[in-house]
């Protein structure tokens, strides 16, 4: 598990140590230098003779980078510090100079392109422009430098949100681009110091230009922005360096690892039977979209449900039974409901009666229909089901929208927001949806964000191949089975639903990877890969 703490928590943990004179920056810089040396050795055998460019901003983040640069010089590395501020960390600069490092001033207008061209030829670029002290989008020389680095061939992300960016920056950038194209240089390995400079450290946004890192060496603890999209896509591999901070027990964001999911997997014992393992009720698909019913029920069965009950028209039920003869179609006891895959919005008349069945399932999950459940049980609400839920939900309802569907949910609650805004700030909008509906929100994406009453989760387990029709139906089925197995816990403790939802996202992602490592997958392949994926998880845990 990777756990991430907010800037405020990290600062509060640093404070007493700094007051006591603990040399936190020395620890951070030394560990950073060791990591860069390891990366250099992995990439070019020896660090000696390598060229590292340190991008240094005004604060302690630049201080870390400059001190690390000094350590590298002592190991035979040629280090050039590119200063992106009029004043940089004095101790760090002095250390670098006395070690024999070169210093280039890129703070003045017009200096960025030449510095970027030099950086683009280095073996490693250390991004120490700004860390947890970042306020808003990168500004001034730091922004100009990152823009010029992008033009010089380094990967960058985010837009220059700064109004009135001087035209010279664009011209400078073009100059840098042409110079590097002539040289045909391979691009350097980029190591971000604490965070890629200019990300939203607490919320994972990309408010302005950001240099895409291959590795982020982060101090004391991971920060939320390293796990949350869209910034999570520019951090590379995250290396957490222990500098001796004592952090609060509860992180702001966490990412489950396979072992965490394995540790809580409901492995059946000799006393278990189908009802103790959990019955999943599925309201999915119509004659127009029968595939959704097949995919959702298949995934629920393949994840190890005690039993799956399908609720739908006879024609769709026949398709379900042809694919999965284990499914039953008679009404009866259910420990979790999956409502909505392949179900059109309520207003659509051609829904085969699914809207009514969906409402009944949701009422049963609230504990309002005694015949269908003995008290409240968890529910997964997906696709068409999202338009059928009541305005407020219990936390054991897990809504599983993608960004476009979340927009619809938010609009129903009076939030006029566009899909692009949700994609730019998924945590913010998932949290807003949770606040407005009361439900646990699983916002699907390349990084899935789960916001409920407990800790926020950000899961990045899925290969990009998983973005395919029917993949969401499979996730709904996996999650339905996982919720049914822990139905009592989920209803009793509002925070559990989020953790189970994050676990389902992990299983879904790993199953896609296992279905066809490195290649395309179809949704049904993913569902079929779940039993093997669960067996591997449990094997990993027991070994
Ligand atoms: N407090 C400490 O002693 C420790 C700090 N650490 C390092 O120090 C960093 C935090 O240092 P600081 O608090 O000095 O903050 P930073 O160095 O992250 O940033 C602050 C500086 O950047 C400038 N800045 C802020 N937003 C900017 C923007 N959008 N565009 C351009 N410039 C901007 C500010 O004017 C200020 O000079 C951490 O990220 C970490 O790297 C580590 O060395 C561990 C110990
Ligand atoms: K940085």
UniProtKB/TrEMBL annotation:
K(+) binds at residues 61, 127, 197. Binds 1 potassium ion per subunit. Coiled coil: none annotated. It catalyses: (6S)-NADHX + ADP = AMP + phosphate + NADH + H(+); (6S)-NADPHX + ADP = AMP + phosphate + NADPH + H(+); (6R)-NADHX = (6S)-NADHX; (6R)-NADPHX = (6S)-NADPHX. (6S)-NADPHX binds at residues 60-64, 131-137, 194, 292, 342, 402, 473. Transmembrane segments: none annotated. One of its GO terms (biological process) is nicotinamide nucleotide metabolic process. One of its GO terms (molecular function) is ADP-dependent NAD(P)H-hydrate dehydratase activity. AMP binds at residues 444-448, 472. Its cofactor is Mg(2+); K(+). Residues 257-537 form the YjeF C-terminal domain. Residues 5-251 form the YjeF N-terminal domain. It comes from the Bacteria. Its EC number is 4.2.1.136, 5.1.99.6. Keywords: ATP-binding, Isomerase, Lyase, Metal-binding, Multifunctional enzyme, NAD, NADP, Nucleotide-binding, Potassium. It holds the Pfam family YjeF_N. The keyword NADP applies. Homotetramer. Belongs to the NnrD/CARKD family. Bifunctional enzyme that catalyzes the epimerization of the S- and R-forms of NAD(P)HX and the dehydration of the S-form of NAD(P)HX at the expense of ADP, which is converted to AMP. This allows the repair of both epimers of NAD(P)HX, a damaged form of NAD(P)H that is a result of enzymatic or heat-dependent hydration. Catalyzes the epimerization of the S- and R-forms of NAD(P)HX, a damaged form of NAD(P)H that is a result of enzymatic or heat-dependent hydration. This is a prerequisite for the S-specific NAD(P)H-hydrate dehydratase to allow the repair of both epimers of NAD(P)HX. This is Bifunctional NAD(P)H-hydrate repair enzyme. It comes from Isoptericola jiangsuensis. The lineage of its organism: Bacteria, Bacillati, Actinomycetota, Actinomycetes, Micrococcales.
């Amino acid at each position: 598990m990777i756990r991430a703490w907010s800037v405020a928590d990290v600062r509060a943990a640093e404070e007493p140590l700094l007051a006591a004179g603990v040399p936190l920056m020395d620890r951070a810089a030394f560990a950073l230098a060791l990591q860069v040396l390891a990366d250099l050795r992995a990439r070019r055998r020896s660090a000696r003779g390598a060229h590292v460019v340190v991008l240094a901003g005004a604060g302690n983040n630049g201080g870390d980078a400059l001190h690390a640069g000094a350590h590298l010089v002592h190991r035979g590395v040629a280090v050039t510090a590119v200063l992106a501020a009029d004043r940089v960390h004095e101790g760090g600069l002095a250390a670098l100079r006395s070690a024999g490092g070169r210093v280039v001033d890129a703070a003045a207008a017009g200096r960025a392109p030449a510095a970027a061209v030099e950086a683009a030829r280095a073996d490693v670029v250390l991004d120490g422009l700004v860390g947890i002290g970042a306020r808003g989008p990168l500004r001034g020389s730091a922004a100009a430098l990152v823009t010029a680095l992008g033009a010089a061939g380094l990967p960058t992300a985010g837009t220059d949100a700064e109004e009135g960016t001087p035209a010279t920056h664009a011209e400078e950038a073009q100059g840098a681009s042409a110079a590097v194209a002539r040289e045909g240089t391979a691009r350097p390995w980029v190591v971000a110091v604490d965070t890629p400079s200019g990300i939203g450290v607490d919320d994972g946004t990309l408010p302005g230009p950001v240099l895409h890192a291959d590795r982020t060496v982060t101090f004391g603890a991971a920060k939320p922005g390293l796990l949350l999209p869209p910034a999570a896509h520019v951090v590379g591999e995250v290396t957490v360096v222990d500098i001796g901070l004592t952090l609060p027990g509860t992180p702001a964001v966490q990412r489950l690892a396979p072992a965490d999911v394995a540790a809580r997997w409901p492995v059946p014992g000799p006393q278990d039977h189908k009802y103790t393992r959990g019955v999943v009720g599925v309201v999915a698909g119509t004659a127009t979209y029968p595939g959704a019913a097949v995919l959702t029920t298949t995934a629920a069965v393949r994840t190890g449900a005690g039993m799956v009950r399908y609720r739908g028209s006879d024609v769709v039920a026949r398709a379900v039974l042809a694919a999965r003869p284990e499914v039953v179609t008679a009404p009866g006891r259910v420990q979790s409901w999956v409502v909505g895959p392949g179900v059109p919005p309520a207003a659509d008349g051609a829904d085969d009666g699914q809207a009514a069945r969906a409402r009944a399932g949701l009422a049963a999950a609230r504990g309002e229909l005694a015949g269908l459940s003995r008290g409240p049980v968890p529910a997964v609400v997906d696709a068409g089901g999202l338009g059928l839920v009541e305005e407020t939900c219990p936390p054991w309802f897990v809504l599983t929208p993608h960004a476009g569907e979340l927009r619809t949910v938010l609009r129903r609650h009076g939030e006029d927001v566009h899909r692009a805004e949700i994609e730019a700030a998924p945590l913010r909008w998932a949290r807003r949806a949770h606040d407005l509906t009361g439900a646990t929100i699983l916002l699907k994406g390349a990084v899935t964000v789960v916001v409920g009453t407990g800790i926020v989760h950000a899961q990045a387990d899925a290969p990009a191949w998983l973005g395919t029709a029917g993949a969401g139906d499979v996730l709904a089925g996996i999650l339905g089975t996982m919720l049914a197995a822990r139905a009592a816990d989920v209803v009793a403790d509002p925070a559990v639903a989020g953790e189970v939802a994050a676990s389902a996202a992990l299983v879904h992602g790993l199953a896609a990877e296992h279905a066809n490592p490195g290649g395309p997958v179809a949704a049904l392949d993913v569902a079929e890969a779940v039993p093997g994926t669960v067996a591997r998880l449990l094997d990993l845990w027991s070994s």
